[in-house]
Amino acid sequence: MAQRIDVNDMNIYYGDFLAVEGVSMTIDPKSVTAFIGPSGCGKTTFLRTLNRMHEVTPGARVEGSVELEGVDLYGDDIDPVAVRRNIGMVFQRPNPFPTMSIRDNVLAGVKLNNRKMSKPDQDDLVESSLRGANLWNEVKDRLEKPGSGLSGGQQQRLCIARTIAVKPQVVLMDEPCSALDPISTLAIEDLIQELKKDFTIVIVTHNMQQAARVSDRTAFFNIAGTGKPGRLIEMNDTATIFSSPAVKATEDYVSGRFG
Amino acid sequence: MTTTDSPQRPARPGDHAERAPARRRRRGTTERGFNRVFRWIATGAGAFILATLAAVALFLLIRAWPALTASEDELSDAVGRIPEGTSLLEFVGPLIFGTLLAALLALALAMPVAMGIGLFISHYAPPRLAQVLGYLVDLLAAIPSVVYGLWGFLVLAPVLKPFWFWLGENLGWFPLFAGQVSATGKVLATVSVVLAVMILPIITAVSREVFLQTPKLHEEAALALGATRWEVIRVAVLPFGRSGVMSAAMLGLGRALGETMAVLMIISPGFLVYSLEILAAARHNTIAAFIALDFAEASGLGVNALIATGLALFLITMAVNMTARAIVARRKDFSGAN
Question: Of A169, A47, A25, which is closest to residue B226 (Cα–Cα)?
Answer without folding.
Answer: A169
